[in-house]
Amino acid sequence: MLKYCVAMAVSVFAATSFAAHHEEPAPMIAEIYACTLNDGYTTADLVSFAREDFKAFADKHQMAMNTFIWEAVAVTPPADEPDLRWVNYFPAWTDYFAGDKAWRAHGEKVAAGIFEQVTCDKAITAAVHNAGAQPGSADEKPLITMPCQLKEGKTIEDALKYRKGVNAIANELIDGSVGSAVFTPALGASGVDYVAMVAGTTADMAAMMDNVRTMKAVKALQEAGLDNPGDCATNLHKSYLVIQR
Predict the structure, then answer these.
(1) What distance, in Å, lies between the first and last C-alpha atoms of the chain?
(2) What is the dihedral of CA 182, 188, 190, 192, to 10 degrees?
(3) Please, what is the angle between helix 156-172 and helix 12-21, to 10°?
(4) pTM
């Protein structure tokens, strides 16, 4: 997702400058691997290994990162080819390179355990911009990604404003809160202008999705005068928590 689904995800430096100029929080960095399960292994196998061996490694080396595994559920081509995405989030590039140094020096055994179970493409990176509430924490939760192309004359600033408006209305309509973010391409990513992400607990996401199904959310967006600045696909994943600091 970010091979399409950020390929998926303007450079990270431009995105950072954009955020600073508009007094937005500085974006995090996402490192995304698109992976296919090897014969005999399941997503549950990988999640179990990641939560035990990979997390123990990250804890031992004090790696400043969050990690999630996104299992593809209903995903549009060409992003539907991988079975899952392994996603690492870092607060800053200094944290990214510190983690990379520890991994290259000491991670051979854990890496072997991962790649016995999955075959992954090279990573791509994206800047992750806050676009509303933070997702509720849960071991497993639904996650929607929307790879988008900007319409003529529209900008990433328009996309962020729209996504924040959508998130505010979505949360007004439910007894809960879903989170929202926007990924913009950084290194190794191309194909779309941005990827919007929505995630939350199963109960909150189900309530939000039912409001879309019944057109209640669509009506609220129309009444608010919110017009999507992008042409977007919509993909559903199941997100598994591995590390959250």
Answers:
(1) 23
(2) -10
(3) 70
(4) 0.88
β-bridge partners, 140? 240
CB 134 within 8 A of CB 179: yes
Give 106's contacts (C-beta < 8 A, 6+ positions apart): 57, 61
| Nearest C-alpha neighbor of 173 from the set 218, 119, 227, 125 | 218
What would the two tokens of residue 214 be?
Answer: 């019944």
pLDDT one digit per residue (tens) for the chain, 245 residues: 334 443 333 333 333 333 334 456 799 999 999 999 999 999 999 999 999 999 999 999 999 999 999 999 999 998 899 999 999 999 999 999 999 999 999 999 999 999 999 999 999 999 999 999 998 889 999 999 999 999 999 999 999 999 999 999 999 999 899 999 999 999 988 889 999 999 999 999 999 999 999 999 999 999 999 999 999 999 999 999 999 99
The type of residue at 233 is: A
Q: Is the dihedral of CA 159, 163, 166, 172 positive or negative?
A: negative
CA separation for the pair 218, 201 (Å, rounded): 21
Amino acid at site 49: F
Bond preceding residue 78 cis, omega within 30 of 0: yes
The SS3 of residue 35 is: strand
Which long-range contacts (C-beta less than 8 Å, at least 24 apart) are formed by 66-69? 66/243, 66/244, 66/245, 67/242, 67/243, 68/239, 68/240, 68/241, 68/242, 69/43, 69/239, 69/240, 69/242
Q: How far apart are CA 48 and CA 243, in angstroms?
A: 12
Q: Rounded to an integer, what distance in angstroms lies between the CA atom of residue 14 and that of residue 143?
A: 27
Q: How many CB atoms lie under 10 A from the CB of residue 98?
A: 17
